[in-house]
Amino acid sequence: MKIIGLTGGIASGKSAAAAEFAALGAVVLDADQAAHEVLNWPSVQQLLIERWGNSILNPEAEINRAELARRVFGEDENARRDLDFLEETLHPRIREQFEAKLADLRAQAIPAVVIDAPLLLEAGWASLCDCLVFVDSPPEARLERARRRNWTAAEFDKREACQMPIAEKRTQSTHILDNSGTLAGLRAQVRDLWSSLDLACSMLGHTYRKT
């Protein structure tokens, strides 16, 4: 079973690439979905409430993700510390989920698993993978996709500033998917990569630590 790490810039088309891998028989582990699940754990909710108080909750007494984003994606030092706290709370727990699911999938004759994670390198999850695939897309196309999520350009820039630089993510990848064209073009690249995985995948030799 090959474990493929999928990363890229914000709104680069990672979900589209993951869907193409899934169509070929891969199981996709979505880091954003895993984060949503972990945020609902009572033990995690309690830690966040201790940090920010009940204002972090919505009327249904669940974590208000919009309020959470407002606190951690800022430009001052407090926002940076809050983001560090959130990542230190979530990332180890998400990794535990991934490790448990990978152990289960290894017994099911699954050909490949894709870990779709924008912060794959930042979180240290690349060590789980056999190869790392970077989805490349022009900045203007990524911004347009972000706007379709109702993000402003300022919000896009704030969130991207909290991630590893795009060029570094690209350099640390073992494979590149060019998503500057059509979905059909992306699909063809995924199929080409899929057919060559036995020869192309190699263990990553890079790690990343935030400074």
Descriptive report:
With 211 residues, the chain is an alpha/beta fold. Helix content is 52%, strand content 12%. The chain has ten helices and five strands, in the order βαβααααββαααβαα. The chain starts with a strand and ends in an 11-residue tail after the last helix. Residues 199-211 have low confidence and may be disordered.
Strand and helix map with partners:
Blueprint: E1 2-8, H1 14-23, E2 27-30, H2 31-39, H3 42-52, H4 65-72, H5 77-105, E3 112-116, E4 131-136, H6 139-148, H7 153-161, H8 166-172, E5 175-178, H9 183-195, H10 197-200
Parallel strand pairs: 1-3, 1-4, 2-3, 4-5
Helix pairs in contact: 1-9, 2-5
Strand order of the largest sheet: 2-3-1-4-5
Low-confidence stretches: 199-211
Shape: globular
Structural class, from secondary structure content?
Answer: alpha/beta
Mean pLDDT: 89
Q: What radius of gyration results from the CA coordinates?
A: 17 Å
How helix-rich are the residues, as a percent range? Answer: 40-55%
**What is the β-strand count?**
5
Q: Strand fraction band? A: 5-15%
Described by strand count, sense and barrel closure, the largest sheet is: 5 strands, parallel
Tell me the distance between the termini.
34 Å
- Please report the number of helical segments: 10
H-E string: EHEHHHHEEHHHEHH
